[in-house]
Design a protein that fits this description.
Elements (H helix, E strand, L loop, with lengths): L1 H20 L7 E11 L5 E12 L13 E5 L12 H7 L12 E5 L23 H15 L7 E5 L1 H12 L7 E4 L8 H15 L14 H14 L3 H7 L3 H16 L4 H9 L17 E6 L11 H6 L5 E6 L18 H10 L3
Parallel strand pairs: 3-4, 3-5, 5-6, 6-7, 7-8
Antiparallel strand pairs: 1-2, 2-4
Helix pairs in contact: 1-8, 3-4, 5-6, 5-9, 6-8
Length: about 350
């Protein structure tokens, strides 16, 4: 049994390495946009705020000169726009005749403020980086589109997890900017209950680590990052899938060993702390009726972060003027919270939604 588990683990690692080395099937064009003297809602300001982004396809314009085929993809907490290069997403959506055919659409995927290659604490300001929130992140995305790329309207805004929450902020802040909103894996209410508890635990474990040194550490506080990574794994887990893939104690233990340590080198304590803390004042629930664009909102039944038994989505979705909520039942196609990036689980819903919102 132990030899089988080790062989399986080695095969998975080798396959992951091969995928990491293989060029993406749909390579994007990448660039940076810089906002000068960006003012945050906290009152803080940056002389230069850099937003890194990726694009696929080319913009087309209507008779008035307005771009009419732009699609904005928004990633989750701790992620980047590069997540949409994953085969389970891009290979299901970007090809000829597929829902987001890059020969038809102009697709834009930015790294959010504090993420990826956009401006973030680890660039040098550390804990003196402005305390950004979701409103700041959405405002920066809006500036990227309008001022940076000349996009004044979106055919579709699609967001996963944190990007899902950003979708609701977008719908309320810029209600006529898009033809359609497709939020995936979130709730449009204040982050409370278990969702806030695990986030608070993660932030506290960083702040309370002696090696954090109020954000001015010379070396990463590794113990804090290990604990944080453990919480992230649980938050993104899919119970049935894990039980199937890790059927023994040894298999589960090996998974932990293979999943935690290798990921630590990619984490920065300040960046992660800011990523999670950005959700602190998110709560679009008071203005859901202000969203006028059609909304297709999808969660999955095995989502630890947004458990369906809360009944929040069913209640809040009724307040949307043109909203449809879909709860994907647990199946071999769902992957817990991460189902948002496995397009095979919800692609048909996207196809129907795009056909119904054609302008």
């Amino acid at each position: 049994m132990r030899l089988t588990i080790r062989a399986l683990a080695l095969a998975i690692l080798l396959r992951s390495f091969a995928l990491a080395q293989a060029p993406p099937k749909y390579p994007p064009i990448e660039a940076d946009y810089v906002v000068h003297d960006f003012k945050f809602h906290s009152g803080e300001q940056l002389p230069e705020l850099r937003l890194h982004y990726r694009t696929w396809g080319k913009p087309t314009r209507d008779a008035r000169g307005v771009v009419n085929n732009a699609v904005l993809l928004l990633h989750g907490t701790g992620g980047t726009g590069g997540q949409f290069l994953a085969p389970q997403f891009a290979n299901e959506l970007f090809g000829p005749g597929q829902p987001l055919d890059i020969d038809r659409y102009y697709i834009i995927a930015p790294d959010g403020v504090g993420h990826g290659r956009s401006s973030k604490p680890s660039d040098g300001l550390h804990a003196h980086f402005p305390q950004y929130d979701y409103d700041d992140m959405v405002l920066a995305q809006h500036l990227l589109l309008t001022d940076g790329l000349g996009v004044q309207h979106l055919r579709l805004l699609f967001g996963t997890s944190m990007g899902c929450m950003h979708s609701f902020v977008w719908g309320e802040s810029f209600p006529t900017f898009m033809d359609a909103l497709m939020p995936m894996a979130c709730l449009p209410v204040q982050i409370a209950g278990r969702n806030r508890v695990w986030r608070k635990m993660l932030m506290d474990v960083i702040r309370n680590d002696h090696d954090w040194k109020d954000g001015e550490y010379k070396e990463e506080p590794k113990q804090a990052l290990r604990a944080a990574q453990n919480l992230l794994i649980i938050a993104g887990s899919a119970p049935v899938l894990m039980q199937k893939n890790l059927p023994t104690r040894d298999a589960a233990d090996k998974y932990v060993a293979d999943s935690v340590e290798p990921r630590l080198s990619a984490l920065d304590a300040n960046d992660l702390l800011y990523n999670v803390n950005a959700s602190r004042n998110y709560d679009p629930s008071a203005h859901l009726e202000d969203i006028v664009a059609p909304v297709l909102w999808i969660n999955s039944a095995d989502d630890f972060i947004n458990p369906p038994e809360l009944g929040i989505a069913e209640t809040q979705s009724k307040r949307l003027k043109h909203g449809t909520f879909i709860l994907l039942p647990l199946s071999d196609k769902t992957h817990g919270h991460g189902t948002h990036t496995w397009a095979i689980a919800w692609r048909d819903y996207m196809i129907n939604f795009l056909s119904q919102t054609t302008h």
